[in-house]
Amino acid sequence: MAVLNLIAVHLLFLLTVPFRIYFYATNKWHLTKEFCKVVSGMIHAHMYIAFVFYAIILVIRYHSFFRGKDPVAFHRKLHALWASLAVWAVVLVIILPVYALKYGGSEEDLQDRSCFNFGGELEKVAVKVLNYLIIGVVLLVTLALAACQIWIFIQVLGRHRTNFYQHQEFWAQVKSLCFVLVMVVCFVPYHSFRIYYMNHYNNHRDMNEIFLAVTAFSCLDMLTFMGRNAFGTCNVGCCFT
User: Fold this and answer.
1) DSSP at 185
2) Which domain of life is it from (predicted)?
3) Would you write out the chain's pLDDT as a tens digit for each of its 241 residues?
């Protein structure tokens, strides 16, 4: 269920990508300001919702490893569905209305047919504090998951000292490593740079867009879900998608 939600988030984000390409190709935004806010916010929404589902997938896999059992069994089949609905409810009922009312309220945000220029929001103390909190959570959670994955790998290699690559348990952990690498490669650089950017946003807007664009490469993880082994044991190729 977490994987299906992750794919849905990627697909929703990809629908907005042509509009970003259109703006950077023409350097003019001929559509409405409200739609600009939607397209601009979608890349952030995609990044954080995907991050939540990555964390959920990894926690479930780690839980299964430490318990020495197969995937976590919910007491009721609908529990996974309700958990997914809870995540989307928070996004749609709480975060989306706040975003629609507050995001892009500065006077400089959309002038002369420009778009994706919402750095003025960082002048607000509350916005800056919220950004620091989000950065801290993303970096700490990613670090904790990466450390846990390394420890699990050490345990697996110690358990299968010879011909470890022939064991299904090893390749299962390789797939978990793929998710960790996506988080480290796609999300950590952006959030690390953002610490500096929040105090120098007027001079590094282009650089911020580049780091933000890197987060979109997390969509390539959909390639790992294709094929007959999509929800089973990972093969070597999954790490290179």
Assistant:
1) I
2) Eukaryota
3) 778 888 888 999 999 999 888 888 888 888 887 788 888 888 888 999 999 889 988 988 888 777 765 555 555 566 677 777 888 888 777 777 766 666 655 545 445 556 766 666 677 787 788 889 999 999 999 999 999 998 888 887 777 666 666 667 777 777 888 889 999 999 999 999 988 888 877 777 788 888 988 999 998 887 766 543 444 444 433 443 3
List Cα–Cα distances, 186 to 2, 6, 11, 96, 110, in angstroms. 19, 15, 17, 23, 28
CB neighbour list of residue 190: distance below 8 Å, 6 or more residues apart: 47, 211, 212, 214, 215
**pTM of the model as a whole:** 0.80
**43-46 own/partner pairs: CB under 8 Å, 24+ apart:** 43/13, 43/16, 43/212, 43/215, 43/216, 45/13, 45/91, 45/95, 46/9, 46/10, 46/12, 46/13, 46/215, 46/216
Beta strand residue intervals within 87-181, DSSP E = none
